[in-house]
Amino acid sequence: MKNHRVTCFILLILFITFSHSHAKQTQPISDTPTIDHFLNKFYQWRNTQKTQFQETQLKLASTIVLAGFLCFIASSLSSAGGIGGGGLFIPILTIVAGLDLKTASSLSAFMVTGGSIANVMCNLCTTSPKFGGKTLIDFDIALLSEPCMLLGVSIGVICNLVFPEWLITMLFATFLAWSTSKTCKNGVCYWKMESEELRRNGSEILENGLVKDGSNCDSITEPLLGMKEDCKLRLPWMKLGILVMIWFSFFVLYLLRGNRYGQGIIQIEPCGVSYWGISSFQIPLAMFFTIWILCKNENIQHQTSKHKDENLIRDGQSNKLIFPVMALLAGILGGLFGIGGGMLISPLLLHIGIAPEVTAATCSFMVFFSSTMSAFQYVSLGMEHTDIALIFAIICFVASLLGLVVVQRAINKYGRASLIVFSVSIVMALSTVLMTSFGALDVWRDYVSGKYMGFKLPC
């Protein structure tokens, strides 16, 4: 009897032990990796990196060096197309370096400024025989576009505060996907046109270059020498002065207004009547500059081309209105998405038929004004880590020079300006994937955590 009880007791203990061990073995089955588990690990990694950089105060750590190297490559690609590259800089700084979005945006403004300075210096100091010995920058397009572009940036920033994150991400993905496809199609069209032109020029050289004695060196070198004599650097100082005046006018308004927390050169109520009054003054200011520039160009056209048909003049006026509307749209989207306007206005210029070389040079020129405006705003409002920002700006300056030299040599060697269009397409495609994925992760995180995902007030 005692043996029977002992046996039952031993069996009971074994059963309890087996059941406990079996429960431990089956426990991980319910904890298999899911999307939430992956997101938690991803955000833990980002928070760990942010904490490390807050402790080290953005010293030159290994992740900062890696981010600088990746930004060097991104700036080289972006400079070829004349775009700022903010769509690549911000994801690199937030994902690789682990910076918060505010710090990444401020650093990106300086990086875009450094790259645009290199682009503007090269484009102002060089001329193109293909375009009559003039600089590649179309100052008329810049004059018509810059006021509305600066106005659009302010409107886009307000929309960024009001719109929910999911709507911004969806609009960004939709617009950039459309722009990337359009840019790729334009690049293919330019490639086909260049192939046909190279084939035609090759046959003309074979027909006209051959002479009786078999020497064709003179016929090839004479046109090149003739074009070099006409290539003199002529800068439109009046137009440059007007652009600086437009930039300074908007900059003064930004200083007077400050941000929505009342941080500015004067003390005004945050988001009060004075704040919105100064902000609204940008609308008549942009309209004044745009109308004034249109009227001035119209008077010049009437004086220089009185013999032309009136219908042609009217068509030219209607075509010029495309640039302010296009710049306003690019500025709104740029302020909404938190990137420069070059990535948005470049596909639009290519779509309406502007040459790739002129598009790249003009976009980099306009990005210079918008990026310097953003950089000065960050500095005036007490930006931190200016030493790291200057280092990144120098890196992008050198990278942009390298990218311009490489692309220009490739164009001169192969005679294909469509390489600029394909460079823009690569940057836009990478930006679409990176920023859309990054934004989608944040949206999913907000949805899972139960945060409010509707429209918000600007203040």
Primary descriptors:
mainly alpha; 79% helix; 459 residues
List the helices and strands and how they pair.
Layout (H helix, E strand, L loop, with lengths): L1 H29 L4 H22 L5 H20 L4 H10 L5 H25 L13 H24 L2 H45 L7 H14 L6 H21 L15 H8 L1 H23 L5 H11 L1 H16 L4 H10 L4 H25 L5 H29 L3 H32 L10
Helix pairs in contact: 3-4, 3-16, 3-17, 4-5, 4-17, 5-15, 5-16, 6-9, 6-11, 6-13, 6-15, 7-14, 7-17, 9-10, 9-15, 13-14, 14-15, 14-17
How would you describe the overall organization of this protein?
- The protein is an all-alpha fold and 459 residues long.
- The chain has 17 helices and no strands.
- It has helices at residues 2-30, 35-56, 62-81, 86-95, 101-125, 139-162, 165-209, 217-230, 237-257, 273-280, 282-304, 310-320, 322-337, 342-351, 356-380, 386-414, 418-449.
- It is globular and about 65 Å long.
- The termini are far apart.
- Mean pLDDT is 75; it is low at 9-32, 49-57, 209-231 and 307-316.
Helix content: over 70%
Task: Write the element-wise H/E pattern from the N-terminal end onward.
Answer: HHHHHHHHHHHHHHHHH
- Find the structural class using helix and strand composition: mainly alpha
Quaternary structure of the protein: single chain
Radius of gyration from CA coordinates: 29 Å
Uncertain runs with pLDDT below 50, 5 residues or more? Answer: 9-32, 49-57, 209-231, 307-316
| Helix count, DSSP H or I runs of 4 or more residues | 17
Rough outline: globular
Roughly how many Å apart are the termini?
A: 83 Å
Average pLDDT rating: 75
